[in-house]
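Weekly sync notes, structure subgroup
Attendees: PM, AL, DS (notes)

Item 1: joint prediction request from the bench team. They want all two components modeled as one assembly rather than separately. Inputs as received:
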Amino acid sequence: MSTVLESLAKLSISPKSVSHEATVDNKAWSDALAAADLGFDYKVTKCLILKPKTAKSATPTPVVVIALDSTETNVTALGKKLSLKECRFANEDLLKGTFGVAKDAVSPFALSNVSDLSLVHLVLDAALWALPGTTLLAFREGAADKTVFVTVDELKAYLKLIEKEEIEIDFSTLAAAAAKPAAGKPAGKAPKKEAAAPAEDSHQMGIEHKKDGDFSKWYQQVLLKSEMLDYYDVSGCYILRPLSYNIWKQITNFFDDAITEMGVEDTYFPMFVSNRVLEREKDHIEGFAPEVAWVTKAGSSDLEEPIAIRPTSETVMYPYFSKWIRSHRDLPFRINQWCSVVRWEFKNPQPFLRTREFLWQEGHTAHLTKGAAGEEVLQILDLYEKVYNDLLALPVVKGVKSEKEKFAGGLYTTTVEGFIPQTGRAIQGGTSHCLGQNFSKMFNITVEDPNAPANASEEAKKIHVWQNSWGISTRTIGVMVMVHGDDKGLVLPPRVALQQAVVIPCGLTVKTSKADEDKVFDGCKEIAARLKKVGVKSKADLRDNYTPGFKFNHWELRGVPLRIELGPKDLEKSQVTCVRRDTGAKFALPLDNLEKGVQEALDTIQREMFERAKAKMSDSIVPVDKWEDFVPTLNAKKLCLIPWCDRVECEEDIKDNSARTSNEGEEEDERAPSMGAKSLCKPFEQLTDKPIVPGETKCVACGQDAKHYMLFGRSY
Amino acid sequence: MSTVLESLAKLSISPKSVSHEATVDNKAWSDALAAADLGFDYKVTKCLILKPKTAKSATPTPVVVIALDSTETNVTALGKKLSLKECRFANEDLLKGTFGVAKDAVSPFALSNVSDLSLVHLVLDAALWALPGTTLLAFREGAADKTVFVTVDELKAYLKLIEKEEIEIDFSTLAAAAAKPAAGKPAGKAPKKEAAAPAEDSHQMGIEHKKDGDFSKWYQQVLLKSEMLDYYDVSGCYILRPLSYNIWKQITNFFDDAITEMGVEDTYFPMFVSNRVLEREKDHIEGFAPEVAWVTKAGSSDLEEPIAIRPTSETVMYPYFSKWIRSHRDLPFRINQWCSVVRWEFKNPQPFLRTREFLWQEGHTAHLTKGAAGEEVLQILDLYEKVYNDLLALPVVKGVKSEKEKFAGGLYTTTVEGFIPQTGRAIQGGTSHCLGQNFSKMFNITVEDPNAPANASEEAKKIHVWQNSWGISTRTIGVMVMVHGDDKGLVLPPRVALQQAVVIPCGLTVKTSKADEDKVFDGCKEIAARLKKVGVKSKADLRDNYTPGFKFNHWELRGVPLRIELGPKDLEKSQVTCVRRDTGAKFALPLDNLEKGVQEALDTIQREMFERAKAKMSDSIVPVDKWEDFVPTLNAKKLCLIPWCDRVECEEDIKDNSARTSNEGEEEDERAPSMGAKSLCKPFEQLTDKPIVPGETKCVACGQDAKHYMLFGRSY
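Output from the run, pasted for the record:
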């Protein structure tokens, strides 16, 4: 906890400070200050901490109001303005717990004590803000009997220091607006063309954090404010709202069609697994055991033995493979399921990237030969690449995982690796494993070899099938948000957008005639309908209580790829004005060419989003040929492509050395930018201009003979 | 446990019986019997109990072999013949546990002690079966020192009594067949046009129970043998295999498209629920609490507080409704999720109908007015009706549930009620609830009334939204199997069939030339490809190790709607021969008209399956106008449509009286055919030829004034 003076000391401010008798309310406080006869001018302030109503279990999102004592702060009207339900004064627990202060000692400087400022709404009285910068303001100095005097400019500097953006509120107009509806309006008719009375204030609506600033808070705000996701009262679990679930639906449709065409059949296994079954493959379960959730009770009865919730389904399904696969003619045997799995991670959860329950598909297949299995591994990996490239407009690097990073219990793992430029970290985007015969031996999944000599023994004729498993999850969505989003919010690739185009009536003023206005509104409706007819997911935003500017923000935040504006001037020219979400580029489109023009624009957006992201990823993959450059490259938020010896010990050394080098004295933290680099994959596309010369090219890390190029990087 | 003599006594057989020294093996036993010098002829037998390999956790499916002692019973060859993996002699546990006998006392009469005979494979030595009916057979008499003598006919009578069908095996040819492959066949070439060597014996493959016989066993066998479903080692959970999951996929696609068009958006809430949230609505949770599964551990750590797995999502979602719905402009607010829910029932589970985890969709919506909510309730109910009628070819009765049967915590419940003719029981097929304002008051989901007078108070302007919830589950699949299936297995309506048509090469004999044979095979491939091109899900079964007859059985069992046969004679006439699965009707189709003809045939099958089922259901809804006819109508496997007073007390009386009447002295059991009738619904279509006359028509059950017609029946 820092005191008021400590907080100010950081700004090299040593403010005036006085002691007086302890005062409980502002009236008594003003009187006490007046009685002290200080000999300089000042304005008494008030600092209110309010708690809007939220779900009982949710973390409170308090509102801090800094105002002149003389300003009438209507808490109800404020709550309405901010769209916060039932704002009430915070109780002692919240004050103590969140702000570290007592009731009569609240000042703006208590914000220094708040651990997560993104949860706080900071409201500033416009009347106070408008005062000359040198005006002295009286604040409580952390106690009921002390006052500190700080200028308006110093207060502004303090707020800048803590990086908390304020919401400026004009309480006088707020009070007037609140009083207005009672002023004899015709009932039952919504006001039109008036000053917008938005349910969300555009200030509060927008993203407060910069993508290049606090990336992690930016990410969370984008997800919450775009309404992709909401927090949930079971830690590590999140609600997928329609905007994000739709992306998963698009991925599902694309991928399910593709694997159905390949002959894979969908199935559904129970989410429950008995301990016995879960533990069948030791290497495999070792990786999952610490994260398994156990059901031990039903109703008020204890179960005879605990039952697990599937963390993945290899050991769940393979006993049945043994039963169902009776002959080589049943091969390839391929099933897939769309389901959720539970991995009760104790590390910091992160929406989409690390959650305790997530949605995925898991494919499980069996083949007669290693070759057939291997072929499918790559077919599936290509489909995963398509999901990223074609749907999410994201680049990936395809390759093979190292021995250390492969799937526990499998033979080899192929992967599509994504990349988040802001953090310089790679992220495993989807994996297609060849399990070899390890599981088929464990679960006795055999067929008779159709090619065995007739006189071979029973045992010699038996073939253990070759198995694959492959999965991709809702993690995809997180990568997409991180790569494409910007300071205005979400940017959705058209192919996964719930709304691809939004039509907004513009250019209407108080002078616009009713007839002209109707023309614009009807025009918007018609445009949306025409687009819908040709398969463009579009809607007209005809809400009459929001300004166009508000609507622009609203849909930009939500990432809608194309905004179509229609105003009286557009109508005159038989055109619409289009604005791309990804670039902000504006262009006119003749109404004659609407459908084709919009479809082309969406295609262009999709393509260019991919190209931009791809260029950024390519730029970030740096061939490194000496160890001295390795850590600096990582620190420059890049990935390192190095000639590598392909040894587990070397990989472990690289991780240790790249962590230590940049990490002197700091605490070890997987999430810190200074964590060690892991191998990401041996890219299928090896460097051709500088090929590895066997026996000559050396491993950049250890100096032994290099086998191939390997991509290393910090990763999620 | 019954003794051998008790078992035989039921057949009024008092067999010869002798004591001798205890003998451990058959050789010693034969010697002991010979030494006893009995003075009559007999054949010594052996009775083997084998255990095929199954998943450790699965219930064993033992094989009982009854053979002459002189027959060489090759257990490995037998296992192969029956497609059972690794048949080994059963251990003492299995003998004691399942058959109630010790190792040296096993006889066929131990079958009387088996609680679920459907799990046992009973194999009879053809050599024994072929003996004259009066031949005496020596069996162990439940102990190592006693022998009983029973004739072949008496053994046959016994097996008939216990209703266990045997599999007759000729061990001599079995042994020969097992030896065959070594007899110098060209390696690497599969035999063609030979006697089929099926992986499944056609006897074992088929359904052993009659639909009109033991319906419950028939149902289980159809599901297992058609490969719709498999049992799982967590009780009450089942594996949905592709054949059944595909039906759910078709339902999902149809229903999701329809609600998306209505403006409903898909979403996904976590499967976990905190206790706090679960318990918010008391009436509601009371119904679910005894069945809630609780997670209390993760990895090796105990959770701070137990977390439930959702049994349904009203209380999970509605706190967020309160947060998300900010204005009347957000209404209607409609979301839906496809997920699984868990209800840990302790009653007898039944595949699809009563399972601990099941798949469903749950829609949750909020509206400004009761009228708007009510309209949606019916729109959704119409979609549920369409799922049944149009996809599953099943009739339903639409109507409103009684107060007693409505959703706990809701205002009223509408339902589509299905009907299973074999049991005469109704089944709730899908429900669309209007929740009224109960939950919105509980969770404070309010908007400002857009039509309130401007001078109304804040409180008066507040409207609690009107909510609906609606769901349909994989239960649909169970109803479909029960209604359409027959003694040959599954019968699938074309619209939900994974394969709609299967093409089978026929009429090939040893005399067929290679060229002609190739023509037939190529023709089959081409037909399947042509059909696939026009969207008919078809495949050619070109397996060369099965006879056409075997394939017919195989696909009939799996319910494929249309079989297309192609033989040399068909080719000559440029036609195919089609056989409908539902009726067995056979017809020729010119190859010229293949696509159109097949599509029409599938449409006809779909339509006629529905019409037949509808006629059956209509016939089973009997208007009953006096109480004396009520129970007899139920007992005749019908539903009763009666003028009813609409009182809860009367409904309870009806249940009691209709149970007791037919149930004298028997044990109460929900599943018994004599259980009491429940109200099913007040059908939207009321009887028009005998309309209720207010004040005049009386309730059939209690004699008070009737309000409307109500459908009553025994139900699932």
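Discussion: Chain A touches chain B through 84 residues (CB under 8 Å).
Action: AL to compare against the crosslinking data before next sync.
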